[in-house]
Amino acid sequence: MELELESFTLCTLMQLFTNIPFGSTLCLSLAIIIITLVILTTFSSSLFLRWPKIITFFCSCETCQAYLTSGWSKTFDNLCDWYAHLLRNSPTKTIHIHVLRNTITANPDNVEYMLKTRFHNFPKGKTFSTILGDFLGRGIFNVDGESWSFQKKMASLELSKNSIRSFAFEVVKFEIKDRLIPLLVLSKQNDCVLDLQDVFKRFSFDSICRFSFGLDPMCLELSLPISEFAMSFDLASKLSAERAMSVSPLIWKIKRFLNVGSEKKLRKAIKMIDILAREVIRQRRKMGFSSISPHKDDLLSRFMRTITDDTYLKDIIVSFLLAGRDTVASALTSFFWLLAKHPEVESQILLEAEQVIGSDYNKDLTSYEELQQLHYLQAAANESMRLYPPIQFDSKFCLEDDVLPDGTFVKRGTRVTYHPYAMGRLEEIWGSDCFEFRPERWLKEGLFCPQNPFKYPVFQAGIRVCLGKEMALLELKSVALSLLRRFHIELAAPPPHHHHHSTPRFSPGLTATFSCGLRVKVREQGTQQRQHTTQPLHHS
Ligand code: HEM
């Protein structure tokens, strides 16, 4: 047991010092303080009382060792690929990472049980909200119980209005026409390499600000460029996710207490985000409730009429920014990456659009209803997120001991994660061609057929299902259509000192992000693109 405790302490210290430059005197003194803290904690009586909990931090099983030593990275490009491999090979499609006290499942019955049948036994939980608390505060993404019910009710009232679809359609249309297309035209004229992931982040940020807050971020009176805030957002998301990956919360809590390393960076990033969110509130008040939105009741004004606490409002804004910005940008990035690799799918999308909208490539969609007629496009967007879900995994905490439908026992206070990325790669759900990008699997006689949401929980499912699914699909389909009809987008070579990879490499974060961005060259849409060889699609 002593040895095990030693390895825990060492491992903790090793993790503690990542990001802190060794050699400096500051680090040496910090090391002494931290070692003293760890020793003190180790021998404190409260820790002896929690002894059985500590023991679970040590595990010599192959999976836990591969996790602790990052041994998986010798064979797999991404942690999610390793988990997908383990889950595929598990007879129940459920695995345990003991050192994380984490049950991970790709079993649709278990997913339905967690997200619907026993929803109340699988909340986000205190541990999760503490990890994300500094970043997300009491925003909808990070709370359970009454605060969640209240925010969900308010948001649902707004998002379920009939007029919201055409409003969303107009917002997205404006962003594409006035911001996105001019940027790509410029890139084409200059023949430069463009990072589409970055472009999509800006596009989705602007769209969500207009849609949810009735504000154009360009109107914000900020002393810093908006890109600084975007960078802070990325950093806060990445560093908060890293907290969840540490073996013990003690590690990041000590770092936060000492304000060192990644925790120092996180604090700085959160400060920046606070400035942005508070400016959104200030502007919204200044403009009154008659903004660019024709709806007096955009999401933010609805919340502002009921809540007077600016910190709470700020948290709500940050959650909506996170919900609407990173996820959509992530979905667009992988969609365009897949389309660049599958010209046959691109051709089918163009063919269908020609049949519905007409052959004038400068003519855009006229309405939300017209967009709904594009079944192949809908299938391609869903297929893209099957293989590359923007939220690759999502964790809940088990309140009381429970048994999942596949017989897995889940101990109270431990984490249970469902894994859409792995589920998209299961033969049992998608058949033997599950690794292929094949939109046709979603079509029956040319019409889009949705999958059972517990088999495809890309937007989560059950009681806490995503509230912005329609908005997200609207953005995805409109951007794909507008860009593909005007431009031919080619993948560019990776940046210097980076290898060429045939599959994406993801950076750690709350949403899937390509670690090297999506570097492309924008060309004129060539005539060869329009000479479709495929058969016309049949819609009844
Ligand atoms: C492709 C894009 C998107 C994907 C894949 C996605 C996925 C998800 C997922 C997996 C959750 C559950 C998160 C959790 O509880 O841990 C969620 C929740 C949520 N999403 Fe989305 N989302 C997308 C876009 C959007 C957009 C554009 C909006 C806003 C208009 C939005 C608003 C929300 C909100 C408010 C919640 C919280 C729901 C609740 O807790 O009751 N999402 N989304």
Short description:
This protein is of the alpha+beta class. Helix content is 56%, strand content 8%. The protein is built from 23 helices and 13 strands.
CATH class: Mainly Alpha
Low-confidence stretches: 1-25, 39-56, 527-540
Helix content: 55-70%
Structural domain tally: 1
* Quaternary organization: single chain
User: What is the CA-based Rg, rounded?
Assistant: 24 Å
Principal-axes geometry comes out as globular
Summarize model confidence as the mean pLDDT.
84
Discrete helix count: 23
**What strand line-up does the widest sheet have?**
1-2-7-4
Number of strands: 13
User: Looking at this structure, what is the CATH superfamily?
Assistant: Cytochrome P450
The CATH topology name reads Cytochrome p450
CATH architecture: Orthogonal Bundle
Terminal Cα separation, in Å?
A: 69 Å
Query: Structural class of the helix and strand makeup?
Result: alpha+beta
Q: Could you give a short account of the major beta sheet?
A: 4 strands, mixed
**Small-molecule binders:** protoporphyrin IX containing FE
DSSP strand content: 5-15%
